[in-house]
Design goal:
Radius of gyration: 22 Å
Largest sheet: 4 strands, mixed
Strand order of the largest sheet: 21-22-1-23
Distance between the termini: 22 Å
Helix content: 25-40%
Strand content: 25-35%
Number of strands: 23
Structural class: alpha+beta
Bound molecules: ligand EPZ
Oligomer: single chain
Length: about 425
């Protein structure tokens, strides 16, 4: 088993280059099912969720060629619908984009129920509502989702009851080659939704309004291949911004779109952290004691739920009592790990009440999910002492070379291999 070991208390100083956005790359890779021809996708992050997605596509019959560490060439002309291997599909939530892509290409889809970070129930009722509005009949049977539009997909008016990133992108994928026009109301506005629309429009789609709460899609007959570069990962950038704040260091974070970071920057400045932004980088420096703040997660452009565990660590380091409300997911399982480090946190429904300033100590902790694992790393970097983190495969799902990037800015962090515990029974 691999672990991350950190000797913390060192202010981070230097430059970090941000990779392509995980939650933008995954839908674009699956969207290649809709394209007649060769696509070259650039700035793809080197993370395990990408490798699993490419493995799924290859096992379905797509031609997949890595042109370099962050560039992949895809051609899905020979893909077999409904053939995604369920053992891989269950490893990531983004496999649900196969539903929209297969529906958009074949008029039918057959995909295992998606996996992903365990935040309790993660419904897809809004995805199904959208597919049905487009004329598909959707059934769940034996752990698979089956969708079929016997008369072909017809443009429709879809009004989401919840603001859903995955739902918005999945309906975009299904509608882009449907007959007629589709309007998605109460759409999610995340930057990676704009990225998917831009990719599809570069392939010849007609999508307008992505990034607003109303997206209009005029169905087209065919999409041609293209070359497209993924936007930078705002959550990766935010994570390193918070690492700078937690260690009292100064980091220049390159390859960002500052506009995407506005809610994160605003909260850091509220805590007394200095953030300077320019065209494609930010410089984050923290010397003073962090001030307490209150945070409520919201769909973009609000404070992202994917930064919730990371900001909780800063609240533990700040003076005073902070309140952290997650209106989107029940993802507080990491609190127990922070309590092992001495954090004083109470959970009241969707809100964590964090009494900052209690001294934290290094400990053996677990990455309970992707962003919680990133939060454990930030805590370990901030604490003067040794922290060990296991289940780090969950971190490597979404962070490209996290250990390497942190070592380059002075962190005493390394990955070690620990033989799995040998039970006494096996000692005989
Ligand atoms: C995507 O998840 C991301 N995952 C998540 O990132 C991210 O936290 C989330 O969007 C919000 O930004 C991927 O892109 C692979 P939602 P998704 O549909 O699409 C409810 C990470 O760490 N809902 O926007 O599953 C849902 O329960 C991961 O990178 C329904 O009720 O999120 C939640 O309360 C974690 N019915 C809210 O909407 C539905 O049909 C937002 O979920 C769909 C969602």
């Amino acid at each position: 088993m691999e672990k991350i070991v950190i000797n913390g208390g060192i202010p981070l100083r230097g430059t970090i280059d941000i990779s392509g956005m995980k939650n933008g790359a995954l839908p674009i890779l699956f969207a290649s099912l809709l394209v007649d021809g060769r696509c070259v996708i650039e700035n793809v992050p080197a993370i395990s969720d990408v490798y699993i997605s490419l493995d799924i596509l290859q096992r379905m019959g797509a031609s997949v060629r890595m042109l370099d560490k962050n560039t992949v060439e895809l051609d899905t002309q020979n893909i077999r619908g409904g053939s995604a291997p369920i053992d891989l599909v269950r490893k990531l939530r983004a496999s649900y984009y196969l539903l929209g892509s297969e529906l958009g290409r074949f008029g039918r889809a057959y995909v295992g129920y998606p996996g992903g970070c365990d935040f309790g129930v993660r419904p897809i009722d809004q995805h199904i509502k959208g597919f049905e509005a487009l004329g598909a009949e959707v059934t769940l049977e034996g752990g698979y989702i089956k969708a079929e539009a016997v008369d072909g997909l017809m443009g429709a008016h879809v009004f989401f009851d919840e603001v859903t990133v995955g739902g918005t992108m999945n309906i975009m994928l299904a509608a882009v080659k449907a007959k007629g026009c589709t309007v998605i109301e109460n759409a999610a506005r995340e930057p990676h939704i704009v990225d998917l629309a831009n990719f599809l429009n570069t392939c010849g789609a007609v999508i307008r309004g992505a990034g607003t709460d109303t997206i209009r899609i005029r169905g087209v007959e065919t999409l041609h291949g293209c070359t497209y570069a993924i936007i930078p990962d705002m959550i990766e950038a935010g994570t390193y911004m918070m690492a700078a704040a937690a260690t009292g260091g100064t980091l220049r974070i390159n390859n960002v779109i500052p506009k995407h970071l506005e809610s994160i920057t605003a909260k850091l400045e509220e805590m007394g952290v200095d953030v300077v932004e320019d065209d494609d980088y930010v410089i984050v420096s923290a010397s003073k004691k962090l001030r307490k703040i209150n945070v409520k997660t919201l769909p973009y452009p609000g404070f992202p739920t994917d930064m919730q565990p990371q900001v909780a660590v800063l609240m533990c380091l700040a003076g005073g009592v902070s309140f952290l409300n997650d209106s989107i997911f029940d993802r507080f399982k990491y609190v127990e790990q922070l309590q092992r480090m001495g954090a004083s946190i109470k959970i009241d429904g969707k809100t964590a009440i964090i009494e900052g300033g209690t001294p934290l100590s290094g400990a053996q902790v677990s990455a309970v999910d992707l962003r919680a694992g990133a939060a454990m790393v930030i805590a370990g970097l901030a604490i003067d002492g040794k922290t060990e983190i296991d289940n780090i495969y969950r971190i490597e799902r979404g962070y490209d070379d996290l250990v390497g990037k942190l070592r380059a800015v002075g962190a005493d962090i390394k990955k070690i291999n620990v033989p799995d515990a040998v039970s006494f029974g096996m000692m005989a």
